[in-house]
Amino acid sequence: MFDLRIEAIKETVDKKIHFICLIKITEIQQQYIDLWIKHNPDYEINIWVDNTATLAWELALRLQNEASKAALTALTIGTGELYSLSKENRIIEQNQAYETIKTAMETDFFSFDQAISEFLQNKNLATKDELKQIKLKNEKSIDDALSELQSRNPTAKIYRLNLRNLSQLLPDISPETVFDLVPDTDSIQIPPDKKESEWYIKELALRGNLAAASDICRLLILQEYGGICFHTDLLPAINTTLFSEFIDSTAEDPEGAESQRRIVNIILDQQKQTGRVPVASEVEGEQFVEPLFVNKIKDVLARAHEQNIPLFKSLNELKVDPYFQCQYDTGYNRAVVAKKDSLCIKKMLDNLNKGHLLIKHSLYSIDRLTLIEWQPEFAQAALKQRLMELSLRFDASVLVQYRDDNIAHKGQHARSSDELTGIRAYDYACADLYNQVEIERTKTLMASEQPFINVFFLTEEIYQSRLSGVMRDYSLLINRPCYDQQYIIQLYANPAALAAANFLYQQNPLLSIWYRYDPLKQQLAKVAGTEYLGDHRKKELFWWIIEWRTTAANPASMGK
């Protein structure tokens, strides 16, 4: 009875589905969108793209690579500061890129891609033709995907984000590629003077954080239009009635998410074989599925095809709490439902604005753009006090890491991004709204619910990327080795070989032994490292450092 009362007071959300596609649209993402459209014919489909910022990912990668190279060549033996130096180099490079791009957009009225192109060319990090080909390729992936989707779903609407006036979400109606270094005529020479555009440009140029940029767009879209906004790595929930006998529920997994994941993978495999879904990249940690289980699921799929039974659920009617007018899933913010002008989304945007004002405040210098010595301890203490005065829930120790965050690994949020636009930001906004009505959080008011609506989160694309294909953490120290012991054999004493050996050792010093060849004694001398004392069946990785251009890896003694 109580649950029925809660359901009765909820408000219906307009039937609109929004997808945000930055940089490019992969075949897999295109097919995921198509499945949503197919199973929700009563919904208005809105696809948001930004064809003026297709080089943002390229900028982030090239700046990171340049910073890594500079750190590597500057190191001498014994420093042990590879990661710190690389990070500082990256911040310096990104600062220069951001200031240059921002000025070019405001003064010369260049588009974002035009400004990136000029900057990378002037830094000798890329040629004009090279960048033009990358831009055309990314734009083609977007245009081809949109054309294909609209051919099958003529009602789908395409919005091209106007980066200069992001807050009003005015579509850029010109599909023409403007690449030469001339003013962007579509901008009508209007500098990006809105705070929302500043956040967006900052995430793309200063941090290379496409996930946070996408999150900002989602908030603005939901506030302006309402509906549900999906990331392109999500699928509709499977028809649990059809597969009920194969869904195993346990105390640890009450919804049977793991068995549903196996079922979804089999469905997608079947559709790949028929050409309805392209082959995805190999998923890390993919588990073996019993052939008997696979065959049983295939039998169900055949029966469903004969009887025209849908394999996935539709969204049906979406409702939200009348106070928050927003709903998101506990632990996720990849699918958010909200009414237009939602109180919760409005509160999030207000908190985000205050957060960015603090980030760029010269007293804390969290964005690291001011020319003062960075003192994180002072900044954190001062910021913590100011957050208390402003009654903001941000964690000062996390917010000061705003520039420490590297390119998000496989689309996962960096910590400071989670504070500003991720799941913690949603929780903060809801908690603020609870306090305003002076009640304790109960089931009568619930913006975060588990389980969520008919969405399946554990897709193959989650393991790849929600934005731009396969993404990897470009931090130099990735402490996820597949070996038990690493041997580094430095054969020559030249500076390049020394730097390369030091780089390899610093990746995992606890599992590494570094030897240098002594030509006089004609033997190896240990430079650093400790012998592995674990299982004798260890996996060993050997590196022979000859010279910079011919450094080679040779797993010559795996399992020795």
From TrEMBL:
Residues 474-560 form the Peptidase C80 domain. Pfam families: TcdA_TcdB. It comes from the Bacteria. GO terms for molecular function: glycosyltransferase activity. This is Peptidase C80 domain-containing protein. It comes from Candidatus Regiella insecticola LSR1. The lineage of its organism: Bacteria, Pseudomonadati, Pseudomonadota, Gammaproteobacteria, Enterobacterales.
